Amino acid sequence: MLVMGCGSIGTRHIQNLLALGVGRIIAYDPRPDRLRELQARFPIEIVERLEQAWAAQPTVAVITAPTSLHVPLAFEAAKRGMHLFIEKPLSDRLDDAVDRLIETVHRQQLVTLVGCNFRFHPGVRRLKALCQEGVLGRLIAARLERGQYLPDWHPGEDYREGYSARRQLGGGTLLDDIHELDAIRWLLGEVESVVCFAGKLSRLEIETEDTAEILLRFRSGAIGEIHTDYVQRVYSRTCQVIGEDGTARWDYTEGTVRWYSAAAREWTAISNPPGWQPNDMYVEEMRHFLTCLVGEEEPLVDVVEGRRTLEVALAAKASAETSTVVALRCRAPNADREQRPAAAVTVTRGSG
Q: What pTM does this model have?
């Protein structure tokens, strides 16, 4: 298995893959200092050039490079018949390269998974179950919020040099916090239209937006709201789902899900499993990927699903840049591309 990009998330995946019993891991990164540190910590192989990695003929690629490099690296791996794990977001743009990647993946019948680790969080899974089981009744709205001070993300590193701070690498809170868009789509379904206000409002020394407010209309008629930022000095991540028969609330830092039943007129609460740690969701995510590789499960978020969420994120960016309502127009997929995305973006002038 080849891991391309060995920053914090790449290192985490290497550690978890070894714990899950993956025997041979090859690590590639353009920074020799990262490779030396990894080799000192883990029983893995390292390569300083991609040509060396391809020559080793791995069958699986884990792509954890900056966002702007996800699709180019994935395409090179897919051409060589490698199954793909791609960290979120799938890309920082929608262009022919994304479509070529999807076509290659389908032609080669490759397994793909986009890294949306919060689908493996017990709290988010409890929310999904409450929605699926009808506990909340018909879903009306959802509100998600995520904030953390960017310089606190990777202590010891200069936040101004990280990909989050740099436009050309695909940074910015709208793409960084695409977990929230993935989660709200998982809970409420497909998005019909988007309005967003976003910008760099703080004194952070970055090129990208540090604050965003997104309003979403879903095909079901439900409405969603997402706040994300790089500014909050205390980490915060929450989700509230409102239905006709009840309300559910998840708080990441508290580790709880609480829901109110109108019929019972009472609240019920459940906490994370005893001893649960944040890394557990990354372990479960990678366990799921390995299980998909042997055909025992279907990927929760393949490249097509990852593309759909990326469309919503980029629609939010377009809305913020143009002060418009952006509609995602459904179209029937082509017969020879059954799993290609079925949405196209149009812009409608509005008061936003």
A: 0.91
